[in-house]
Write a structure and sequence with these properties.
This protein is an alpha/beta fold. The chain contains ten helices and 13 strands. Helix 1 packs across helix 2 and helix 1 crosses helix 4. Keywords: DNA-binding, Transcription, Transcription regulation.
Length: 295
């Protein structure tokens, strides 16, 4: 058994295709298939169920895949650690970013990090905070920018970047635009655009209305800020969003909500043995003026 065989198994499992896996690994399909068959003979069990149109992991393959990923990660970390000891940080840095990051300037941080560590390959993902926490635990991500309601316990390996009370966002011609401050009760009868029900991006607003004993209607759900703001701009709904999400947009206005929900933004990283690249990124964010710091 060798590392290329492990990489081939991971590629086939993720691509669900020997053809696509071979292209991803830059080998001919016959060579990849031969190596996986040799590995299956060594193990004594098939890793994949194959037809001409379909490829799926067997029970043995599913068990093997988890350990193969750990082995590949360990090998990569060995190389990264040796490079770091020699004064150069290498490897990959995977970063999860929620759609409503306001605490740090992501492009500026990436520019600075890339300048300091040009040998690191950076992979960015956007998504939801709860999924990112699971990915950090499973080592599918190195670091993540997260947002949670103030009442939610923070991730174990994390630092607070910013606390914000959400603002009401409405079209510039909406009656709310003429008000300096409002209460949740003033918004309860308005239609809302928000993130999907059950998501961390939605949780703080739902919880705030529930605690205030108020009901609201959310006829529009979207996974990105741009779509939510476009719905608001069209005048068919309002939203509750963090300050700084709509800078300079002439089509919308923001209004303070005195009893509005508070969102806490965190920088989080893998608690167990973070990579040199992850540590360097956390240190960079700390040096850029936030309160984040490495474990």
């Amino acid at each position: 058994m060798d590392l290329p065989q492990l990489r081939y198994v991971v590629a086939v499992a993720e691509e669900r295709s020997f053809t696509r896996a071979a292209a991803r690994c830059f080998v001919v399909q016959s060579a990849l298939s031969h190596q996986i068959k040799a590995l299956e003979r060594e193990i004594g069990a098939p890793l994949f169920a194959r037809t001409s149109r379909r490829v799926e992991l067997t029970a043995a393959g599913d068990a093997f895949l988890a350990e193969a990923r750990i082995a590949l990660d360990a090998a990569a970390r060995a190389v990264d650690a040796a490079s770091a000891a020699a004064g150069e940080i290498r490897g990959e840095l995977s970063i999860g970013i929620i759609p409503t990051v306001t605490a740090i300037d992501i492009p500026a941080c990436l520019r600075t990090f890339r300048s300091a560590h040009p040998a690191v390959r950076i992979r960015l993902r956007t998504g939801a905070s709860d999924a990112f926490v699971a990915d950090l635990h499973a080592k599918r991500l190195d670091v993540a920018i997260l947002g949670f309601p103030e009442s939610t316990p923070p991730p174990a390996a994390s630092r607070v970047l910013r606390r914000d009370r959400l603002l009401a966002v409405a079209a510039s011609e909406h009656p709310l635009a003429r008000k300096g401050r409002v209460l949740l009760a003033d918004l309860a009868d308005e239609p809302f655009a928000d993130f999907p029900a059950g998501s961390p991006g939605r949780a703080q607003s739902d919880l705030a209305f529930e605690m205030a004993g108020l009901r609201r209607e959310v006829p529009f759900e979207a996974t990105t800020v741009d779509v939510i703001v476009s719905i608001v701009r069209a005048g068919v709904a309002i939203a509750l969003l963090p300050p700084g999400v709509t800078p300079g947009d002439p089509g919308v206005v923001t209004v303070a909500v005195d009893d509005g929900p508070t969102r806490v933004e965190y920088l989080a990283w893998g608690e167990f043995n973070p990579s040199p690249a992850a540590r360097a990124f956390v240190e960079l964010v700390a040096e850029s003026g936030s309160s984040a710091a490495p474990a």
